[in-house]
Specification:
The chain has 469 residues and is α/β, with parallel strands linked by helices. The chain folds into 2 domains: 165 residues, Cobalamin-binding domain (Rossmann fold, 3-Layer(aba) Sandwich); 250 residues, TIM Barrel. The chain contains 16 helices and 16 strands. The strands form 4 sheets. A 6-stranded parallel beta sheet has the order 4-1-5-6-7-8, with helices on both faces. Strands 9-12-13-14-15-16 form a 6-stranded parallel beta sheet. It has a two-stranded antiparallel ribbon with strand order 2-3. The longest helix is centred in the C-terminal third of the chain and has 34 residues.
Length: 469
C-alpha cells in the first residue's frame, strides 16, 4: 500500500507547530531560530510501515513551510491509498478542512490520529462523516499498520494495551529533512532529537501527554543499549553537534536513568546532550549527568506555591525545585524552567510570586497559560465548576489568551499578567548571558541573514519591550 504521513498546513499562520509538540501553538511572527520538535509518532509509524513492505511518503507542510498549492501538488503526485495526519486541539477546525480536501482530491482512506481524536473520538467521527474512515485513539503505530493491512474495521479504533516500547522501530529519519528540526534549548545547531522513553507516572492535572500513552500514567523505558546504538547511528549519519532527549520525563525512573548515563560513559560517546526531567533527582545522579556530558535540562516547575503544586499533582515542592536548580548550576548544567500560570488554586499573588521565582532561578524560562485540554482531569474540573470559557477549539492555542475564570483569578487578569511576563523571558536571556548561545545558534543555522534579522528587525522591538515592562 501507499501511505502518506503528513503534518498538514495551518492556514493563515506565520508560524505554527503541531505534530511533535506537546501543546500545539501558533505565532504572528516567524521565529528567527527554527524551533521544530521532531514528530516521533509519525516517524516511527513510517518506519514500521516500511519495515512491512509498504511505500511511505512523509510530507511535513509546517516544517517545510509549504504553500497550499505546493502541498496538494505533491500529494497528488504520490497518489496515496491511505493518508495519516495528526489532529491537535487548537488546529482541529483547520485540520478538518484540509482532511476534507485531501479526501476529495485523492479518494484515499483517511486516518485521524493525535490528541484531539484521542480525547473526543465520537465527536470527531460525527463531525467528519464521509471523510474520516478511521479514528485512532492514543499511540497509533501498530494500529495504523493493522489498518493498512486490512485487519481492522472502519470507525473508532483503540488499542487494548500499551505497546512494548522496545518493539517500536527507530524513527524513519531518512524520510524527513532533518535540517528543519531544531531544539532551541540545545547549545548548538544542528542537533538530533531522540526519545529514550515514553510517558510519566505523575498526575499533573493539566497534562494531556498521558492520553497519547493509552491513558496510562506509566514510564516505559527503552533498552539503554538500543538507545545508544541509535545515537551512534545518528551521529555518524547526520553529524550533529548535540543530542536532545525529548522524553516526557527522562529521570523519573532512577535506576534506568543511571544505567542510561553509565552506558554513554562506558561507550565514550563524546557528544553533549540536553534533556527534559524532574527536580526529584539526587545529587549523585546530577554529578553523573555532568560526567556523561549533559549540558542542559528542562525542568517543569509550573508554580512556586506548594499548595498549587500539591493540588496539581506535580510530585514536588518549591524547596525541591530550588535544591535541584542550584545543584545543576553548581555542576555546570544549564536549566530551562517551564511555568504554567492559571492553575487551580492560583491567585494574582501566587502567579506574581511564580514570576519572581522565574526571574531569580535558572538560566531562562517560558511562561504558558494553563488550558484545560479535553480528556484531562483539569478539563473535568473546569467543566464541573464552570471555570472554562471558550468559543472555539481555536482558543486552545498555546500562545493565546486565558480561557479559564476562577473565583480567585479572572481570565482578563491572567492574560494581562502573561502578556507582561513575556518580556521577562527576554530580560532573563540578556541578564544570564544566554543571548550569546542564541546568536551562535542563529549564525550556525541561518548565517548572515539570520543575524541581520535579529539585529536590525527583531532586536529593537525586544529591547523596547524589556525596558518598558
Amino acid at each position: 500500500m501507499k501511505m502518506l504521513i503528513t503534518d498538514m498546513p495551518w492556514a493563515g499562520k506565520k508560524y505554527a507547530g503541531r505534530a511533535g509538540m506537546r501543546w500545539a501553538h501558533t505565532s504572528d511572527k516567524r521565529p528567527i531560530i527554527s524551533f521544530r520538535p521532531f514528530p516521533f509518532y509519525l516517524a516511527c509509524t513510517a518506519a514500521l510501515l516500511e519495515k512491512h513492505g509498504h511505500e511511505v511518503m512523509v510530507l511535513d507542510a509546517l516544517a517545510e513551510n509549504l504553500s497550499d498549492d505546493e502541498y496538494f501538488k505533491r500529494v497528488l503526485n504520490f497518489s496515496p491509498d491511505f493518508i495519516l495526519a495528526e489532529i491537535h486541539t487548537p488546529s482541529y477546525n483547520n485540520d478538518k478542512i484540509y482532511m476534507k480536501k485531501l479526501k476529495e482530491l485523492t479518494g484515499a482512506e483517511m486516518i485521524f490520529a493525535g490528541p484531539q481524536p484521542t480525547a473526543v473520538p465520537e465527536q470527531i467521527l460525527k463531525e467528519n462523516k464521509d471523510i474520516a474512515d478511521y479514528i485512532v485513539v492514543s499511540e497509533y503505530e501498530f494500529l495504523v499498520l493493522k489498518i493498512v493491512e486490512g485487519k481492522l474495521k472502519k470507525g473508532i479504533i483503540r488499542s487494548k494495551k500499551i505497546s512494548d516500547i522496545n518493539s517500536i522501530p527507530w524513527p524513519a529519519r531518512h524520510l524527513f529533512n532533518m535540517k528543519l528540526y531544531n531544539e532551541v534549548f540545545c547549545r548548538n545547531y544542528p542537533n538530533i532529537q531522540m526519545m529514550a522513553s515514553r510517558g510519566c507516572p505523575l498526575r499533573c492535572s493539566y497534562c494531556n501527554v498521558f492520553t497519547m500513552n493509552n491513558f496510562q500514567r506509566e514510564h516505559r523505558k527503552r533498552d539503554v543499549k538500543d538507545v545508544w546504538d541509535e545515537a551512534e547511528f545518528c551521529i555518524e549519519k547526520y553529524n550533529p553537534k548535540e543530542l536532545y532527549f525529548d522524553d516526557d520525563n527522562i529521570d523519573i525512573s532512577p535506576k534506568w536513568f543511571n544505567d542510561f548515563l553509565d552506558e554513554k560513559i562506558k561507550r565514550k560517546i563524546d557528544i553533549p546532550f540536553t534533556c527534559m526531567g524532574h527536580v526529584n533527582i539526587n545529587n549523585e545522579t546530577i554529578e553523573k549527568m555532568a560526567k556523561a556530558g549533559c549540558v542542559g535540562i528542562k525542568l517543569g516547575i509550573e508554580s512556586s506555591n506548594n499548595e498549587v503544586l500539591k493540588r496539581l499533582g506535580k510530585g514536588m515542592t518549591h524547596q525541591m525545585a530550588v535544591r535541584a536548580i542550584d545543584k545543576f548550576k553548581n555542576v555546570g548544567i544549564k536549566t530551562h524552567l517551564t511555568f504554567c500560570i492559571g492553575l487551580p488554586g492560583d491567585t494574582e499573588k501566587t502567579v506574581r510570586d511564580t514570576l519572581e521565582f522565574a526571574k531569580k532561578y535558572g538560566d531562562h524560562f517560558q511562561i504558558s497559560i494553563a488550558a484545560p485540554f479535553p480528556a484531562t482531569p483539569l478539563w473535568d474540573e473546569a467543566v464541573k465548576n464552570k471555570w472554562i470559557n471558550f468559543k472555539s477549539w481555536d482558543d486552545f492555542d498555546g500562545m493565546a489568551d486565558a480561557i479559564v475564570d476562577y473565583p480567585t483569578l479572572s481570565s482578563k487578569t491572567l492574560s494581562e499578567i502573561a502578556g507582561s511576563a513575556q518580556s521577562l523571558t527576554y530580560r532573563k536571556v540578556l541578564v544570564s548571558g544566554e543571548w550569546k548561545k542564541y546568536i551562535r545558534m542563529i549564525a550556525q543555522e541561518r548565517g548572515t541573514k539570520g543575524l541581520f534579522t535579529l539585529v536590525f528587525l527583531r532586536s529593537p522591538d525586544l529591547i523596547k519591550s524589556v525596558i518598558k515592562k
